[in-house]
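Sample intake sheet
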Amino acid sequence: MKIAIITDIHYGGPDPGAFDVRAVVDKFVHWAQRLEVDLLLDLGDRIDEVDRTTDLANAGELARIFARFPGKRVHLRGNHDVVNLSFGDHEALFGTPAGHQAIDLGETRLLVWQPSVLLDRAVGFPETQPELRWLSRALDDDARPAIIASHIPVSGASMISNYYFEHNDDFATYPDHAAVRSAIADGGRVAMWLSGHVHWNSITQVAGIRHLTIQSASEQFTTMPDPACAYGLLQVDKSIARLEVFGRDPVTWEFPFVPSGDRRWPQPRPRVPRP
């Protein structure tokens, strides 16, 4: 099973003489087609918001590039995608469903989870209820190991040295991220979680579940002065998962692909008493 992944494209329109991320998207789509992947997964933040008219035009340009891929596509919505455009706008442009999905991938399945990504700069993102109930039910409905995909990560990983989020870590995740982790741990059926949003490659293990974030296609802070031009390939072969990110910020991870319930993970020891 192979999934081609791209995230955080942040296309803001043509700018003569500047880096044009559309070329990266075009290369990614041709590459995914050549590899005959089972799924093309876009984790969101395709555009940089300007105004409704401009955002519709820019998203439309990207939609036409993605449409060249003949297979199954999933396009999540990121916080920049929904400043001026609705879920319905993106659904119409990209021809893919808005909202949550459970996608059959044979021995595994992908749960596309789309809680609100509307960012309030005074308080951050809203809590994930009632969307968390959908995720819990979807996990209960099928015993196969699950991959979850969301734009915003929920691992609670450190943002130290992240250009955007070291001093704004409340904008890097949901306020109830601990409740989300607890809910998915209860059933023991999640093997891994894929996200974008934070503009770097990272892997964090929480109670037997590997949470991975993939670098932005257009980011520069880890590859100064050039853009990362990043995209990735997830391969799951029986009980082994391999995620490789390409471009100027490459990384490869390989690990057992097993649901967390198959791994005994004790509760952490309590805090040691201090004198």
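Comment: The longest helix spans residues 52-66. DSSP finds five helices and twelve strands in the chain.
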